[in-house]
């Protein structure tokens, strides 16, 4: 393992705090979790006319439902503004967006595995890198953005680098990055999601996003995956 | 049938976007445009208080001999002004679509500061596809 990635501290911090709010007596004002009483009533018979608690809803019910793109655009815009106020440069901003995406990605993977297990007869967990990459390109993209990504490429120069290409990333559709920060790609959030899914499948990698516009697709974005050495070594053994 | 110019005026009366599309109006400096926008803001405030029958939306169209200006006032106080030829019949629908583009490409852009001049490439692109190419 190389030097500890900053997001590990984020994760360990959040796991600590989640241990905190497992105990109903812990009073935490920082989290807007429903109070212990509402959890208790939801476990019993729900009161008529009262909508069930979001935690008690069936996860499969929302599989095909969609989120308003406008609402998400406003939310993501606020996320970027909030983050931008607290960083000291573009690299820092991208790293923070990546961390946020990572935290979303761990949940995306968990949900997708859960749904695959309950819906398909032969649920499958990818253990090799290429099938995992394919499933990220199609399944993860479809779950998160509603359509598969546009292409997968393998780097010619470095054998540990792979790329997922999205010609028009939905999270950047309304974002115009000013000229003085043109290296910034807000798809760092997506890169974080990909990194979390790969990590969760046991394929650690460093994932970054790069804006690679073409004449036809001005917001074309490349998600660059740089695999950990251990993954390549294992792939070699599994061959 | 021509669209001459588009202005966006913020709720304080400042001109935050101005773009010319066709020749036909006098060329002004950016400072003169700012003054005119502020004046229009004041005129609009007066017209909205003149109504004898309660509240009014204020001036919607101001016509001259050679051109007319169509004003769209949004619920948040932002004004979209389109300067067109007298025969132009699509001004209202164009303004509605400009408002839509503004909501999408400006308000959803994290790098835009509300009430400040619009410097969003996405908005320029949308306006170009909506109205046509501006002058260089």
TrEMBL record, chain A:
Keywords: Endoplasmic reticulum, ER-Golgi transport, Golgi apparatus, Transport. It is found in: Endoplasmic reticulum; Golgi apparatus, cis-Golgi network. GO terms for cellular component: endoplasmic reticulum; TRAPPI protein complex; TRAPPII protein complex; TRAPPIII protein complex. Residues 1-21 are annotated as: Disordered. Residues 9-21 have a biased composition (Low complexity). It comes from the Eukaryota. GO terms for biological process: endoplasmic reticulum to Golgi vesicle-mediated transport. Part of the multisubunit TRAPP (transport protein particle) complex. Belongs to the TRAPP small subunits family. BET3 subfamily. This is Trafficking protein particle complex subunit.
Automatic annotation (TrEMBL), chain B:
SUPFAM superfamilies: SNARE-like (SSF64356). The keyword Transport applies. SMART domains: Sybindin. The keyword RNA-binding does not apply. It comes from the Eukaryota. Gene3D superfamilies: 3.30.450.70. This is Trafficking protein particle complex subunit. It comes from Suillus placidus.
């Amino acid at each position: 393992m190389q030097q500890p990635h900053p997001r590990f501290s984020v994760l360990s911090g959040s796991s600590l705090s989640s241990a905190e709010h497992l105990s109903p007596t812990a009073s935490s004002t920082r989290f807007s979790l429903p109070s212990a009483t509402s959890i208790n009533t939801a476990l019993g018979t729900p009161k008529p006319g009262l909508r069930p608690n979001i935690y008690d809803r069936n996860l499969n019910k929302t599989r095909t439902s969609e989120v308003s793109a406008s609402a998400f655009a406003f939310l993501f815009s606020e996320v970027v503004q909030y983050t931008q106020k607290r960083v000291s440069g573009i690299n820092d901003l991208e790293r923070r967006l990546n961390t946020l995406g990572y935290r979303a990605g761990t949940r995306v993977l968990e949900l997708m595995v859960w749904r695959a297990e309950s819906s398909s007869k032969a649920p499958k967990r990818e253990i090799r890198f290429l099938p995992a990459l394919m499933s990220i390109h199609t399944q993860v993209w479809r779950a998160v953005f509603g359509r598969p990504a546009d292409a997968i490429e393998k780097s010619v120069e470095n054998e540990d680098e792979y790329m997922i290409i999205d010609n028009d990333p939905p999270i950047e559709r309304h974002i115009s990055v000013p000229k003085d920060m043109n290296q910034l790609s807000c798809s760092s959030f997506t890169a974080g999601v990909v990194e979390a899914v790969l990590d969760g499948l046991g394929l650690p990698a460093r994932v970054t996003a790069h804006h690679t516009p073409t004449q036809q697709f001005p917001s074309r974005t490349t998600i660059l995956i740089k695999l950990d050495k251990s993954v390549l070594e294992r792939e070699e053994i599994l061959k | 049938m021509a669209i001459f110019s588009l202005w966006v005026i913020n709720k304080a009366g400042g001109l935050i976007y101005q773009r010319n599309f066709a020749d036909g109006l006098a060329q002004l400096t950016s400072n003169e445009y700012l003054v005119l926008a502020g004046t229009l803001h004041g005129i609009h405030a007066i017209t909205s208080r003149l109504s004898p029958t309660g509240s009014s939306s204020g001036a919607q169209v101001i016509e001259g001999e050679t051109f007319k200006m169509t004003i769209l006032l949004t619920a948040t106080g932002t004004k979209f002004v389109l300067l067109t030829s007298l025969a132009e019949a699509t001004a209202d629908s164009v303004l509605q679509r400009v408002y839509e583009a503004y909501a999408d490409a400006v308000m959803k852009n994290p790098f835009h500061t509300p009430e400040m001049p619009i410097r969003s490439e996405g908005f320029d692109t949308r306006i170009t596809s909506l109205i046509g190419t501006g002058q260089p």
